[in-house]
């Protein structure tokens, strides 16, 4: 097992021990993690290095390089038979009475027939040049064969009867695993393990991106046939992810949280944003209820409030609902953000806005190509690609000079697009001018008006 896999499994085990998932039946949970070999990728910010006016600069400029790792996590569940449950109860009773303790017997189903219940696909991009990283949760799917969950109103009451050390049931198994996997990266434990490929890279900033789009199946094609699988609506999925990431955000900020206890106690600033495209903040309330102000009655509501969600996006002051100087750090701009500079005692960074300046660097300017990363199978990415193609096509129409009998006149030249459409020759504008330089059609219309 690689260092990266063992590190992630250790984080998941820590999270499960600290907050046992609320499962209503006994069984054995098996986890597998798979990391691809880090490879060079230039598709994360493919247009960040493009200068808006200097073509010679673009010929020499290098795109933003990143190390891409594909991560796959699976969970399987082996239910314990009723015979084994009864045997475990007898063993516990014998132990209390001073009798001999025997391990529970395992049936053939327990040892050879675990069922896949969850799969998660993530992409991790590390930018060594800037000391930042981007985590994209690409897919998360369940098969419906997981253990039944304890109803939320009963979890606190049952915790006192099940646990003698004061522990309490946490969230569902799927939510607990999803939170633990994400916390492994938000707590920077992935880069703290010795001996791994990126151990020499110091990462100080991480951006997590999740696209909550409801589908009947993502990774288990036949799972919709299982009547026990619950498919959430788009609004329900956004609400579910917001609750999961609230736990991630709160735990990441807390240096005493179980996942961060073994690491250094450096403060981590975590900010949470969510948005439903096409909906304003008030319009989104029927789909995903806004967080209530005031006291919270349940632990989940308290965590949701502590996460301090902002409805919007962190790319502009209008989207983040803050002043330009208070915008959150982003992967390509975190070193010059006001938050980092204020912590280090440095002055305010001046944004480069003039493309004609000698020190203009496209990668350091807050524009769409440097703010929004590109991911595979992402509608936002496809929309950005369409915008880039349209801009490129329109940029190809440049004015050229054609010589007439009188003076040079600017006319459209023959572009590559025109050649592809069968236009091979430049337009001769001399035929549209009379000998005196006037438009013949205009002169003829004036003559007819005079005759009338």
From TrEMBL:
One of its GO terms (cellular component) is nucleus. Keywords: Acetylation, DNA damage, Nucleus, Transcription, Transcription regulation, Transferase. SMART domains: KAT11 (SM01250). Transmembrane segments: none annotated. GO terms for molecular function: histone H3K56 acetyltransferase activity. Residues 84-109, 394-452 are annotated as: Disordered. One of its GO terms (biological process) is regulation of DNA-templated transcription. Its EC number is 2.3.1.48. It comes from Sporisorium scitamineum. It holds the Pfam family HAT_KAT11. It is an enzyme of class 2 (transferase). PROSITE patterns: RTT109_HAT. It is found in: Nucleus. It catalyses: L-lysyl-[histone] + acetyl-CoA = N(6)-acetyl-L-lysyl-[histone] + CoA + H(+). Residues 92-109, 430-452 have a biased composition (Basic and acidic residues). This is histone acetyltransferase.
